[in-house]
Amino acid sequence: MKIGELSKTSGCSVQTIRYYEREGLLSDPERSEGNFRLYSDKSLKELEFVKHCRSLDIPLNDIKRLIELKNKPEESCSSVNKLIKQQLDLVNKRMKELKALKNELQQMASTCNSDNTIGACGIIKSLDS
Amino acid sequence: MKIGELSKTSGCSVQTIRYYEREGLLSDPERSEGNFRLYSDKSLKELEFVKHCRSLDIPLNDIKRLIELKNKPEESCSSVNKLIKQQLDLVNKRMKELKALKNELQQMASTCNSDNTIGACGIIKSLDS
DNA sequence: CTTGACTCTATAGTTACTATAGATTTTATA
DNA sequence: TATAAAATCTATAGTAACTATAGAGTCAAG
Ligand SMILES: [Zn+2]
Ligand SMILES: [Zn+2]
Ligand SMILES: [Zn+2]
Ligand SMILES: [Zn+2]
């Protein structure tokens, strides 16, 4: 299949597919006589692996490492474990941050009933302190 | 005070201060004879307003709008309200996403005890499906 | 044989910074 | 006072993960 079809099947934009290829996350596809990229089902699986990782917010560099590891089935998977745990730590950290943000935003929102003037707005007052 | 002192007092890096100025979030400071930026306490307050907004993850463009609004104390604050509520929605949305990520990452992590080979690693298997 | 859809590469834009390079100014030391 | 070190200046490039062009080439249908 050509890139447009892979794009539709995968739900990944054409530019993103080409971008992933440039970044070395997808193996270089065959080319047609007219230089069009030609993909197989294997290509689709590669792309879906990347998408799955991205859906977990794993950075492209780490995905690259995961792909390399995937190709060495005999090695220990401890680095895979470590990577996922780091990602989990990061997610937990960000969740904590967001909770704090949420609290402050909610409290701020509650200080204003929206029919004030800006001079009397509790939100602006909070932000100013 | 010069930019270095403002940087220390505010906890904002020198480059970031200059960047905020370029982006129109801080008013242009006075200049010394030798063209060094000279700041007042008012400048510090401006910068702290920006920092407070940034700590709530409000994008620079929205902060710019908030500053403009702040300078029109007689107008209605409904747009301020709207902006904060949008930010709150965004935070809530992101929190939901992160919860889902966390769940999947945790489940994945639980499928591997870290002393597998990659070929037998539950994490890689999950990512592959 | 031309139109339109698709694809190609290369390049620039996005966000909020951070990090240089190379020049100039100021401050501290000898 | 001479000089060295620290601070500042502008301009430019890099970061992450895309997205969006521009301009040219390819391919299928009418
Ligand atoms: Zn999944
Ligand atoms: Zn208000
Ligand atoms: Zn606050
Ligand atoms: Zn494992």
Keywords:
Multidrug-efflux Transporter Regulator, Chain: A, Domain 2; mainly alpha; DNA-binding; two-stranded antiparallel ribbon; 2 domains; homodimer; elongated; 129 residues; binds zinc ion; 64% helix
Spell out the blueprint of helices and strands.
The structure is a homodimer of 129-residue chains.
Chain A (H helix, E strand, L loop, with lengths): L2 H8 L3 H9 L7 E2 L5 E2 L2 H15 L4 H11 L7 H33 L11 H6 L2
Antiparallel strand pairs in A: 1-2
Chain A binds a DNA duplex (30 and 30 nucleotides) through helix 2.
Describe this structure in words.
2 copies of one chain form a homodimer. Chain A is mainly alpha-helical and 129 residues long. Chain A has 2 domains: 1-59, Multidrug-efflux Transporter Regulator, Chain: A, Domain 2, CATH 1.10.1660; 76-129. Helix content of chain A is 64%, strand content 3%. The first copy, chain A, is built from 6 helices and 2 strands. A two-stranded antiparallel ribbon of chain A has the order 1-2. The mean pLDDT of chain A is 95. Chains A and B meet through α3, α4, α5 and α6 of A and α3, α4, α5 and α6 of B. One zinc ion sits between chains B (112, 116, 121-123) and A (77, 80-81). One zinc ion (ZN) sits between chains B (112, 116, 121-123) and A (77, 80-81). Chain A binds a DNA duplex (30 and 30 nucleotides) through residues 2-4, 13-16, 18-19, 23, 32-37, 54, 59-61.
